[in-house]
Amino acid sequence: DQQVKQNSPSLSVQEGRISILNCDYTNSMFDYFLWYKKYPAEGPTFLISISSIKDKNEDGRFTVFLNKSAKHLSLHIVPSQPGDSAVYFCAASGNSGGSNYKLTFGKGTLLTVNP
Amino acid sequence: SQTIHQWPATLVQPVGSPLSLECTVEGTSNPNLYWYRQAAGRGLQLLFYSVGIGQISSEVPQNLSASRPQDRQFILSSKKLLLSDSGFYLCAWRGHYEQYFGPGTRLTVT
User: Which residues of A touch B2 (CB under 8 A)?
Assistant: First the structure.
């Protein structure tokens, strides 16, 4: 049972335009959500996160939106740059305050930003 | 600042051989540590996590095991590798709400 779903395996965007990556979740107990960026043969890099008490968090070119009623979150990258080309993983946690804290990841979306 | 190391970076092992992957963290004490695997075309699958020395929780039943002999050391092992064990193995430590990943080990079982 996949609790975090990234239904688009890939996305292609022109440089300078907006990239929108989507993520859906099924577990209503999730209370913290994160986005990671991964280049081939490297470990994922933390990008941005959002608590379930918020609906938006912004950090430079990256903005994450959370719609709890729809169990949906999205990552917006504006403007997109060729260096943003990577696999993006959505992750969620249902025990952000506990010691047995763990993340559930989606399968990832490959973003390609074309010059 | 905190740093996480993994070795080896790449490994090619025959089926049935043993495995030992090591992860060490610097710059933090008593971190939560995690082992993940990314199989080809798949997401990140949590294998084990540890909240302290000698404390291991297994997420997926398989022929792998983990140990935490020291506060900042986390080891992934197998007595006999299977072809299905091939993948990219990642170690991570917990910050506040985020997890920070090491560079990974590419394991190919032949």
Answer: none
